[in-house]
Amino acid sequence: MSILRHLPSFHVRPSVRLEKPIITTNKIFNSPSAPLNKYRFHPVSLRLIRSTHELVYDPVTSLRSHGPCFSADFESGNLGQVFKIGPRTYEIHLLPDPTRQYSALWYFFKVTNLTPGEYIFHIVGFFRDEHQHDIGVLPTAYSENQAARNGLGWFRIGQKLNFWRAKNSPTNSNFSMNSNSGTEFALSFHFSVEETDTMYFSYLYPYTYSEMMFHLNRLRRPFNYSILCSSSGGVDVPVLLWDAEVQRCVNINACTIKPVRTAMRSSSNYIKKKPLIIIASRLHPGESNSSFAMEGFMNRLFSHHSESVRLRKHFSFLLLPMVNPDGVICGYYRPTIHGDDANRVWKKPDKILHPIAYSFIKLLDILTQTKPPIFILDFHGHTAQCNAFTYGVDNPHVFMNNSQKLFPKIMSELCPIFDEPASISFKPNDFPTTMRVALHHRYKIPFAYTLEMSFGALSIGPDKNTQITPSQYRQVGQAVSDSLAVLLLDSLPTQSFVKNYIPIIPD
Known about the structure:
Layout: H1 14-17, E1 34-35, H2 46-49, E2 54-57, E3 69-71, E4 82-86, E5 89-93, E6 108-114, E7 117-126, E8 140-143, H3 144-150, E9 155-156, E10 159-165, E11 185-193, E12 197-202, H4 209-218, E13 226-230, E14 236-243, E15 248-249, E16 276-281, H5 289-301, H6 306-314, E17 316-320, H7 325-330, H8 355-367, E18 373-382, E19 388-393, H9 406-414, E20 424-426, H10 435-443, E21 447-454, E22 466-467, H11 470-491, H12 494-500
Parallel strand pairs: 5-7, 16-17, 16-18, 18-21, 19-20
Antiparallel strand pairs: 1-22, 2-4, 3-6, 4-5, 6-12, 7-11, 8-9, 8-12, 10-11, 13-14, 14-15, 14-17, 19-21
Helix pairs in contact: 5-11, 6-11, 9-11
């Protein structure tokens, strides 16, 4: 058996991945819903079911393959070695994330020359068994034939689903960047092809860096983005700063206010402007649903809707649509290109290892001198729970934090897939290095949330017992914008917060 001992260079080089960008903007809107069906899983020994073991794809070495041709050397792609182990049956391995602790969950690959017939895919290398496959959450796929003929976008695919502990699979010890092997799991499913086709397969609906830039470039004036910094991989990191004082997005390079460094300050010795709302997404690359939600939020916020106009009049916004672009581009599930969790570095980010978090905090140190930060939310995806819900920070020492349960209540009224009972608040010192908690403490932000969205399943609302679609993720983002208007314009005395806010003394 051939063993992959080194990761391909494009797996750690975003610039190489971006030479083959992936944009599904015009295709993904027509993504149908699919029902949930419960499955009973059983263990499988791949060694026993292999009638052959032919290596048909290797990300490091070029191979000639007769029949279906696998590839993933494009933006956000993830595919390790592929073996043909029987007629139309393939053992497909994941590339691990570049981290000391083995993590692999995201896959995204292309298969050309799929001839008519039934296929079986065994995808091997998942690092944990937290999932919703047992209740019927399926992989996603895109068919070039279906797109051309029926205008179909990404859809859920698979029958005879099975998920098991893959005891006989190669472990991550085969990879030079991962020395600690761990238990791996495998997913198998059947699907049929009626005519020769080219198809893409992914863990969840993909949303790439190029996709994000496409949408940002389509925003009409005055909703323009600027560049926060370069990522570790040399990628531009866009940020949008809506300034309520001038009613337009401003370039962050124009933010030249010098941080006040005197220790003797009161809430009256600096000029206060309209409060600041902070929204971020895609800290974890494999949580592509967070980007759909961010897109929905921006579309709503920058629309002519009356509540959106009111929000923009009374609040400034700082939006960071993709916190970890290197990981997204390179096809990781969780870490940055340096192997760090991008949601565990916010208490004291390193300028070299964590340039995005470092630059974002430096920008906030300036902005919060005159724009009191009142609300922060980062979008995430959740592998094990259904619906959408929030994690909050319960901190009685922060002004107005006793009202922090209002936001999930309002969300549940405006968003049919939001689950208020599943929304919980943690103690102030729980998860101290996450974006939500670290910035809550640093700037005394009263409303601080992580909004989690299921990777697949709905158990509430009019569409319960179905699998979530991209449009529903966008609706979550839209509901966040609408809920902000209800929370901050109709429910709370935000002027009291502005009056009592004292900015931090930056480092």
